[in-house]
Amino acid sequence: MGSVIHPTPSWQKRAAKKQQELANTIPPAWRISDAFKATFPVPFSDHRNDFINTEAIRKSGILTERELKITGEYDVEGLLSALADGSLTCAEVTLAYSKRAAVAQQLVSCLTETMFTEAQERAQYLDALRAQGKVAGPLHGLPISIKDNFHYKGTESTIGMLSFLDEKSTRNSPLVDILLKLGAVLYVKTNVPQTMMASHKAIFQTTDSHNNVFQRCLNPWNSALGPGGSSGGEGSLIALRGSPLGVGTDIGGSIRIPALCCGTYGFRPSASRVPNGGMRGCTTPGMKFLLPCAGPLSLGLDGIEIFFQSVMGARPAFSDSTVIDVPWRKVPQKPSLRIGVVAEDPIFPLHPPVRRTLVEATHLLEAEGHQIIHLSPEEGQVIQLNEVAWGIFSLDPAGMNHIKAGGEPVVPGMEYIYKQGEKLKGFHKPSWSDLSELDRLSKLAVFNARRAELREDYRKMWVRHDLDICIAPPAQSTAVPHDTFGLPPYTAFLNSLDMNVFEYCSLRIGHYY
Fold this sequence. Notes:
Blueprint: H1 11-24, H2 34-37, H3 56-59, H4 65-73, H5 76-85, H6 90-108, E1 111-114, H7 116-131, E2 143-147, H8 174-181, E3 185-190, E4 210-211, E5 215-216, H9 232-239, E6 245-250, H10 256-262, E7 265-268, E8 293-298, H11 301-313, E9 338-341, H12 352-367, E10 371-374, H13 377-380, H14 382-393, H15 398-405, H16 412-427, H17 440-465, E11 469-471, H18 489-497, E12 504-506
Parallel strand pairs: 2-3, 2-6, 9-10, 9-11
Antiparallel strand pairs: 1-3, 4-5, 6-8, 7-8, 7-12
Domain Amidase: 92-498
Binding site for substrate: 196, 230, 251-254
Protein name: amidase
């Protein structure tokens, strides 16, 4: 009798299986009722559901009043203080955030993996340690969410790709180990776009956090809009207060754009400051043309500072070779700063809310006694630096190769951004001649030479104006309808520079709907 041939499961079945596995990790008592779901128009992604102002998590009835207070009233500093003085226990804080994250997942699809049971066991261990008068570290008992590309032993790091399904991580990423040593409790991993920030047809990948494995992550302020990406799951979860502090990564705006779209704080440090090694990627190993970086998202600036102070204090260079060994330090602030303002690029006009906020910010800073230096578009070089970024990203086909290997289709947002790139070619010509006859190595040489030239121009501009810092638009717009975010010119140009002075923070702009 011949052997039985089993057909390969379709990508839809494989994705559905993973989605069901994720759903099954949410305890029955934490699942929102059909009656509660019926209070919002469905599907959520097609309607303007505001899950924040309607207090959807409170009305779900899943969290107790004490759990709502823990997750709704404390900032990171307050949580750590309450954990230290014993007014809150690690176990109850972890339980509260686990339940809130579970409800958030059912509303906005922000999670990819949950570690609820393991997190609760760790929290109990940390409480026992505290009872002995000991602490694990400065983050003792603090729940922290992490982006899906971080490896956490025993979970998957699929980054929303079918080709990575069913591969359990056998080790932690270095930053994960550092956070655990500092006393943190890691309890969820968060959603990302298909291929994260890899290229598609020689242009940027979408910043819509949508993939075929975990589906579309929604914006909690308006579920018909996207949360940005590629750390969109982090932005969405934190906006719903399902995490006090999260860790994302950024290679073209992936921390800053979700911070903008979801109304959180996000900080993209210079590359090599925070451990970024040992993670799941969607690029060819060794092809690191623009360096990615890891960084925090939080609802308060205290969370951002505590993250950096703690991680830098752990001497991360001894755990990860991608990091330089530079300690955390506080720099005395001058009474008056010289602040450069990156001009609106005429090729990428700003939407009114973004333009208005940039103007208001400069007026507020000026009123505080700071000197404002308005940079011309020629000095800002937004389009020129983006040319370099787009060119470099186009050199690595790994993202599309993984899509093909998984037998899955390209998500709509990727096709949209490709069409946008094609339109751009019609009215803007690159600053170099045709490169179609060059091989990849020769193209890289052209891009790197141009990048070095632009970085030197920026250095000269910085010195000429004697700048202390620079502010810039975070994007052309705030959150937009699904699959329409488009190119990220006002974040990607900073990745091309990667200058220490551009430790960039996306602050709240206002309305997200």
